[in-house]
Design a protein that fits this description.
alpha+beta, six-stranded antiparallel β-sheet, three-stranded antiparallel β-sheet, 24% helix, globular
Amino acid sequence: MSQVLPELRFARSHEWARVEDDGTVTVGISDHAQEALGDVVFVELPEEGAELAAGDEAGVVESVKAASDIYAPISGTVVAVNSILEDAPETVNGDAYHDGWFFRLQPQDLEEVQTLLMDAEAYQTHCADED
């Protein structure tokens, strides 16, 4: 079973969101998603300053098996991207929840984290239903 961290919130499309102390929201893909993709070989990230609505395509992650779109789990402005992934996309496979984060948003409405995204328990059920 994939690791699911209880402090994170999850989108149905397998992105996770973590609210940081400064009010920004860090986004990545779940351990379940990186396991399903296999070895990640390329990550395309959004531009800093990009305005994203919840559900907008924000980038692409490619593996030896497939390419998959990355979606914004909530609405906001991209304030940082994880440039480590440009040279070391496999970081996502090694640590999807920490070093392998994708981008950080300044949310338009922080409430979306609670209203649009699943808690860890609901996400685990979602993943089990997909399998």
